[in-house]
Design a protein that fits this description.
It contains ten helices and twelve strands. By secondary structure, the chain is α/β, with parallel strands linked by helices. It folds into two domains: 3-75, Ribosomal Protein L15, Chain: K, domain 2; 83-320, CRISPR-associated endonuclease Cas1, C-terminal domain (Four Helix Bundle (Hemerythrin (Met), subunit A), Up-down Bundle). A four-stranded mixed β-sheet has the order 1-5-7-8, with helices on one face. A four-stranded mixed β-sheet has the order 4-3-2-6. The chain has a two-stranded antiparallel ribbon with strand order 9-10.
Length: 331
Amino acid sequence: MRKRIYLYSNGELIRKDNNLCFKTKESINYLPIHQIETINAFSHINLNKNTIILLHRNNIIINFFDYHGNYSGSYYPYIPIQGKYIEKQVLFLNQNQNRLFLAKELVTTAMVNMLSVIKYYIKKKRNLKEQQLKLENMLYAFRNSDVDSVEEIMLYEAKFKGVYYSCFSNIVFYDYFKFTKRSIRPPKDPINALMSYGYTQLYTLISNIIHRSRLHISLPIIHGNVRSPEGLQYDIADIFKPIIIDRLIFRLINKKQIQAEDFDIKEDKVYLNRLGINVFINNFEELLYKTIYINEMKRKLSYRNIISREVHKISNHIFNNQKYKGFRSKW
């Protein structure tokens, strides 16, 4: 499997002997072209036409982020989606019952995975039995509801997330990381800073996968285009945020791999600094390539491949009438 490369220094990305070379004031690093899937750039990067041609020929994406890890944009090699797939995706979304079925399955899967995280930490002796019962009742009510709009589904989802988030302070050990509520722009405490950074990395990963599929990212199932012109990545990310990003955050905090010195605090804004980013990214990449056994396939898959498979399953549901069932974590 090809790698995701992270660039944190200002420099120039140049083509050299049909390979990539990242040149900074201090050093020159050679990047074997056939080993790269994606480049994530967190500083100022210069590149020219010859570099772009090489990236295009090797189907390499570049994602750009600002200093604090906020997503700024991407370069995608031109891979046109056939018109018949766009037409079919639009027709699918305009058929209300089809859209509601898929939306409900996506949200049900996300709820199951949030509940799975809570159950895991109950096994670790956290006092979360009351919240577990409440979440189980909410999940039961949602599964047996006759929803007639995506907005109604989102209301169920929002209430479920509210209870789920209320568990966070009982999961982490240290007072510095106490969590009260979700704050986004800007993050107002260290856990929110970790969530915002981690979720952005997950959104970007899923966006990259969607752009290599038959699906059009600007045609979401649930969340509409309220955050950006693209929206499908948010629908899919909700499945994996609890079991990949949230679990990773709790582990980094409880094992003291992330501490107070890994954050920049300016007035009411809290962001990961470069030390914290390095710790998070190293552990995030390690987790993506961790493998777990998938019963239905009778073999192991990495979390990275599970995410790709989920995009493929949604694509097959829309284009090939293969009924979608979301990935449910079993701990």
